[in-house]
């Protein structure tokens, strides 16, 4: 048979062999080697075989059993590893990805997906595989390892595959299942942690910041936001992410942790992407850090308000307050308490982010409130490097400690009483008909010190006075004359129709 390059294939005990060989093969194991001596009466007798075997010849056979099966055999399945958790097993019409080594019964390797470094991907139970493999894969868990032994009539039969597999060969597949889904599958959501307090859940059009670990079903990590040390930031429900993630991120709370399992038709499909193979089920373990909607405004919650609360903060007022600043997940960003001093601003002057200007409106001294500021009213997409992440929602716990009323809009200085009719002469102390910046500054300072006038609080005195002086110095020569000097209510009202 070696000379012919093919095994001898035959049923035993059915008269297809000489009587001696029929007896000699009984009880043999695959890979067993026997030396068989057969007398003429159990071989070809007194006639022999013309030209080949003489009459009354004793025959000697050196036999090596390569394969063995019976027409009543079925597929044999031997599981040698099974994961503790097995939420789902292979059913008819499922799509699976698996690795295998394919051998004959004698251990000879004829094929291996490992050698090709890619899984074998196929539907199960609908005729895409040989019948024995269709049967052998049913009931498997992802991560399970089993040996599937298939008789030839459930494999490639009498003809073989015309390549590596000869006719009538039993096949042994050592299989590990890596992936499993059904084309009818939707996403699967497993809640791992839901905060007790969940005032709002994400909706279509919201902008989320979240961390994730992305793995395949067998646990192979393909991506992680944690390794990049920054959240993944995106709109949800609008096609900015794969369809399964778009759906899986809806209805989450800030601080929630959930597992989202996404079949390939809602992930990266048959082609895959990067480290993600084609037709792969994806598993994302996500942690929602915060979310907001571009239509959101500032949210204000009053935690304490004094009983006597008549004077309310307004634009132009000078405020002193303490705050703790944090992210929505509770991460502390900054605190005036740790610095041991208040934060001081002129409300509405652009000294703080727009959301804080809004959050400090209509507050009274002693009031405490929590102000939640969406990023478009805070530090935007860029954030503050090393301090505030991009697109972060900010939470300020505020206590207003002091309020100095500001001046009417457009004024940097006002009189507390009647204005002197000889105002220019009073400022022009040397009576030379010209007022210099130094004279002007000394006069304004004296009016403030005596309580006759008031400067806008919270601004630098020298800058205010220089600005006032420049407005009066209409020809820009550094001197103000009586003709140039006018009070604000004496200014000519010019019309600007073009504006």
UniProtKB/TrEMBL annotation:
Residues 1-69, 93-181, 205-292, 316-404 form the PPIase FKBP-type domain. Pfam families: EF-hand_5 (PF13202), FKBP_C (PF00254). It is an enzyme of class 5 (isomerase). Residues 415-450, 460-495 form the EF-hand domain. The keyword Nucleotidyltransferase does not apply. It is found in: Endoplasmic reticulum. PPIases accelerate the folding of proteins during protein synthesis. One of its GO terms (cellular component) is endoplasmic reticulum. Its EC number is 5.2.1.8. It catalyses: [protein]-peptidylproline (omega=180) = [protein]-peptidylproline (omega=0). InterPro entries: EF-hand-dom_pair (IPR011992), EF_Hand_1_Ca_BS (IPR018247), EF_hand_dom (IPR002048), FKBP-like_isomerase (IPR051989), PPIase_dom_sf (IPR046357), PPIase_FKBP_dom (IPR001179). One of its GO terms (molecular function) is calcium ion binding. This is peptidylprolyl isomerase. Keywords: Calcium, Endoplasmic reticulum, Glycoprotein, Isomerase, Metal-binding, Repeat, Rotamase, Signal. It comes from the Eukaryota. Residues 472-499 are annotated as: Disordered. The keyword Cell membrane does not apply.
């Amino acid at each position: 048979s070696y000379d012919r390059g093919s095994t001898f294939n035959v049923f035993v005990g059915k008269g297809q062999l000489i009587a001696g060989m029929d007896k000699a093969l009984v009880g043999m194991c695959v890979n067993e080697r026997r030396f068989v001596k057969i007398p003429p009466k159990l071989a070809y007798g007194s006639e022999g075989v013309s030209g080949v075997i003489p009459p009354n010849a004793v025959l000697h056979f050196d036999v090596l059993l390569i394969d063995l099966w019976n027409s009543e055999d079925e597929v044999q399945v031997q599981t040698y590893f099974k994961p503790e958790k097995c939420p789902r097993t292979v059913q008819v019409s499922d799509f699976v990805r698996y690795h295998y080594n394919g051998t004959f019964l004698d251990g000879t390797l004829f094929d291996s997906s490992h050698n090709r470094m890619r899984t074998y991907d196929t539907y199960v139970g609908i005729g895409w595989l040989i019948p024995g493999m269709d049967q052998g894969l049913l009931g498997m868990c992802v991560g399970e390892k089993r040996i599937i032994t298939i008789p030839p009539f459930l494999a490639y039969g009498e003809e073989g595959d015309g390549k590596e597999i000869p006719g009538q060969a039993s096949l042994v597949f050592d299989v590990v299942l890596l992936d499993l889904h059904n084309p009818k599958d939707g996403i699967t959501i497993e809640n791992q942690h839901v905060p007790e307090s969940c005032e709002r859940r994400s909706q279509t059009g919201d902008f989320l910041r979240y961390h994730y670990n992305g793995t395949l079903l067998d646990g192979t990590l393909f991506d992680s936001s944690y390794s990049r040390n920054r959240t993944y930031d995106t709109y949800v429900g609008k096609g900015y992410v794969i369809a399964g993630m778009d759906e899986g991120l809806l209805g989450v709370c800030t601080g929630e942790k959930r597992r989202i399992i996404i079949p390939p038709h809602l992930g990266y499909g048959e082609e895959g992407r990067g480290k993600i193979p084609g037709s792969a089920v994806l598993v994302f373990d996500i942690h929602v850090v915060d979310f907001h909607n571009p239509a959101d405004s500032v949210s204000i919650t009053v935690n304490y308000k004094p009983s006597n609360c008549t004077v309310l903060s307004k634009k132009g007022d000078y405020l002193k307050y303490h705050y703790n600043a944090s992210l929505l997940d509770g991460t502390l960003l900054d605190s005036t308490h740790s610095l041991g001093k208040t934060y001081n601003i002129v409300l509405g002057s652009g000294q703080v982010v727009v959301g804080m200007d809004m959050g400090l409106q209509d507050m009274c001294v002693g009031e405490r409130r929590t102000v939640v500021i969406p990023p478009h009213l805070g530090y935007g997409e860029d954030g503050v490097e090393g301090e505030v992440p991009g697109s972060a929602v900010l939470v300020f716990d505020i206590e207003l400690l002091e309020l100095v009323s500001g001046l009417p809009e457009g004024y940097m200085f006002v009189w507390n009483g009647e204005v002197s009719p000889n105002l220019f002469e009073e400022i022009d102390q040397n009576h030379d008909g010209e007022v210099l910046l130094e004279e002007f500054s000394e006069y304004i300072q004296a009016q403030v010190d005596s309580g006759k006038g008031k400067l806008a609080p919270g601004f630098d005195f020298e800058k205010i006075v220089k600005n006032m002086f420049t407005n009066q110095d209409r020809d820009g020569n550094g001197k103000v004359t009586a003709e140039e000097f006018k009070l604000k209510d004496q200014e000519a009202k010019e019309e600007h129709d073009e504006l």
